[in-house]
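User: Can you fold this complex?
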Amino acid sequence: MTTIHLPRLGTDDDSDDTAGPTDSRAVSRFDVERFAVGELSGERALEVQRAIDTDPALKAFFDDVKASDAAFLVTAPPSSFMAALGDAITARATPPSLWSRLRAAVSSLQLQMGLGAAAAAAVVLVAVSTPDGPRSGTTSKGGPHTAAVGFFVKDDSGARVGEAGEVLHPGDQIQLAVTDADRPAMVVVGIDGSGVVSIYAVEATATVAKGATGPRVLPASLVLDDTVGVERFFVVYGDDDATTERAVRAAADAVARDVKAGRVDLATVSALDLSVDRFAQASIHIQKVR
Amino acid sequence: MRESELLTGLYRSYGGRVYARCLSLLKNPEEAKDATQEVFIKVHTHLDSFRQEASPLTWMTRIATNHCLNVLRARRAPWHERYRREVETGVTSADGHFHLLENAELLRLCLIRVSEKDPQLAELATYAFVDDMRQQDICVLVGLSAPTLRKRLREFIAICRDELSTHVPGITFADAPI
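Assistant: Here's the predicted assembly.
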């Protein structure tokens, strides 16, 4: 019979959330790694150096870090790595293939037609030229009316329908269009590539009759800032504006934390973590490059 | 400094550490190289916020850890066989005992399993048990209090215990202070 020894972390009073750390080690292996790459300085660097000099295990670990890092740069030299990295970044910034665009266009036919009508109705806001249909974002069901969101890209000559995942640039101007779910309140939120959350619109029952008029263009247009990377816009419908805004902000903040930590790719986060019984939502993303 | 020069400098300083982190979790040199590239693509994307980081290594380790756990989560594996094989063939420590923290492969299997259920918990456990970060440093990195961190790490150990009990019949456990 095998016995496995598991780590024991002592016993805390879990209700006491103010107690300080109990990890009494002066220097960990991770500190040695930071020292090895030159991140530590001053007294802390001296402290780690002394620990390496006196602890054979830390010394062996330090030597291993230095040796493996040096070997890595020999086997994967910066010049070739940077060339491959440049290719990969460029490939990601390239618009989707014709086939994927066609597939998406077919699947979003309903929204395309709706957006076309909305654009025509909103001629005061934008002069629309739509040789191709837009690619819709993702949608979720919200009763008889399903939420959907798309956007127009505006320029001096008017506006054209944007595509999900479209590559845009800082300074470009876009305007969102939505198909309302059958709920009385709506919140529009954006999360950018650096994990910043922006609430763009909060509408309550009194201002807009949701789910009654089909696709519509939201009044305010957005000028894209210089944060590069994927930016995603979510439109969420709920029963009242205050509750919906609170829930949306909390869910968006959670996604933003994951973005900052590199845990998620906004290109794949199609929905906020919200109750499907209480909220309907849709989203669309763009890719910002300089 | 130009963007490309900054990225090249970061690669020279941290590329080896990022690769080592990826290799320790993925156990496959080619996959680790791909993962290293993914990490640097994210670094490129977040270069503006990166310039303000006090510890680029901590930040890049975090990105690498989460990316690798995502890759591992996407894999499907017959867990009972992998656990049992590792318990049967894994080496014991110098004291003659079988320590979870000193058996890198068994610990890795547990991390993968936990990451499927609770990705943040797997991330915390990786910092504590793979990177050997001090608890106070993890608290700063992830924004948790020390008691909450220890509570979460105890959850990780409990899940490991349940996993191993379920998949390796007859196994017993002992506590080892860390």
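Chain A has two domains: 29-75, 93-288. Chain A is about 35% helix and 25% strand.
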